[in-house]
Structures are given as C-alpha cells and as structure tokens.
Amino acid sequence: MVLEAQRQLVQEIANGGIREPPSQYVHREEDRPTGAVMAADMVLPTVDVSRLVGAPDDHVDEAAKLRSALESDFFYLTPEEKLKYSNVIDGDKFQHEGIGIDRVETNEQILDWCDRLYLKVQPEDERQLELWPSHPQFLTALLHEYTRKCEQVTKVVLGATATGLGFTEEFFIDKVGERVTTFARFSYYPPCARPDLVYGVKPHTDNSVLSILLLDKDVGGLQVLKDAYAAGKRAIDFLKLRPAEHGRQPTS
C-alpha cells in the first residue's frame, strides 16, 4: 500500500494557490538550498563531444525536439490523462516507471518539489510501452530515436575515456555489455512560492556508468559538488552549471 503523498503530483499542489509548500516538502534550516559559489580561479574541465564524433548535429536536433515536446505538451496534460501513465497502480501499488513522484517510504520523508516521468528505454524488449505517453503523438518515435543517438554518444565517450587511460577503445564498452539497462527521467519543477525551503531534486549521486543531461536553458539550479571538504572543513559547497552553448549538453 502506498502512502497518501505518493498519489499527489506536485504540479497539482502548486496549482492550488498555496503560499508555502506543505511541510513534507520543507527541509530543515541547516539542510536548505544555498547559493552556489564559483571560485574565481576555478575552471571546470569540459570536453567537446563534437570533436569525438563525426556529425553531432542530429543528436542536438533530437534533443531539442524531445525537450520541446515534454515541456510544452506532456506535462500540461489534464490530471485524468496523466493518470493513464501513473507510477501508482490502482491507487495502491508503486512502480518505478511512469509519471509521479519518487517512492515515498515514510510520512517523515522530505519530498522533492518535482514530478517526473521515468521510463526504461533499453533494452528495447523490456520497454513498458503502455506507460509511454501517446500525446504528443510523435513522442514515442522521438524518444526511441533520441535513445539511439544517446547510445552512440555513450560509446564514443566510453571509448575516448578508455584510450585516454591507456586501455583499448572497447575496454569499458565490453565491461558494460550488449544489453545495457538505460532509463530516461524527465523532471518537471512547478513554480514554488518559497523555493528557499525546498529542493527540486535533493543532493544525490547517480549510480549509473554515464549520465547524459538534457538541460533546459530556462531552468537553472543544476549544481555539482566539488572539493567539499579540505582538512575536515567545508571548502566549497556547490558549483552551478549552465547549459552549454549551441545546444550541446554536458555529460557526467
């Protein structure tokens, strides 16, 4: 049985005209978001993936179309339409895939101010296509094509990483194997009257081999933790990242 908070989308809460987020979304004062800092002499290393592949423009185009379809269409469907793709089955059982919020384990859990669409995209024969939105109509085909392009980029990055470390180009690719499990997560952050109290996505570590980030230039907030502690003291908190120019997205 799922907890009551599991059944409600954050977008519905935000649309209710509340002055402050519900207490289950509010972090303790010492855990609340702080402004990101960037040391004046700090330069984050970046790699232009376009220099590693022959024709990156098609990947960029697919990413732009996919982002547009989700931000302007799917997340603005009616609650009744979204229910068809819910990650709560029959109002009582949680599943990872579908639209909703992350799993709610306890009533004391602090929740993210975020709705997400979470889908397994690889292997193809393990896709739950009934949870893939049918609106807009071209979304399924677009997500399939985007996944294929991301697979190409992943192999290029893993190959370049391997050779840079003195291994053969196929070293990491062979370790990952042919049947790679890949998930796509699309997050929607509704407006919040008190953004200083909540996290869209709380600080975390991805447990994937490679994450490809599709950033929205109109939504800020992405940060990475670097050199958090030095000699037992906090040296630098978070570094704020911005979308790369020309639509090319950073990978981590």
Automatic annotation (TrEMBL):
Gene3D superfamilies (UniProt xref): B-lactam Antibiotic, Isopenicillin N Synthase, Chain (2.60.120.330)
Pfam family, one: DIOX_N
Domain Non-haem dioxygenase N-terminal: 73-134
Domain Isopenicillin N synthase-like Fe(2+) 2OG dioxygenase, residue spans: 185-232
InterPro entries: DIOX_N, IPNS-like_FE2OG_OXY, IPNS-like_sf, Plant_2OG-oxidoreductases
UniProt keyword terms in alphabetical order: Iron, Metal-binding, Oxidoreductase
One GO molecular-function entry: oxidoreductase activity
Protein name: Uncharacterized protein
Organism of this sequence: Eleusine coracana subsp. coracana
Gene for this chain: gb25330
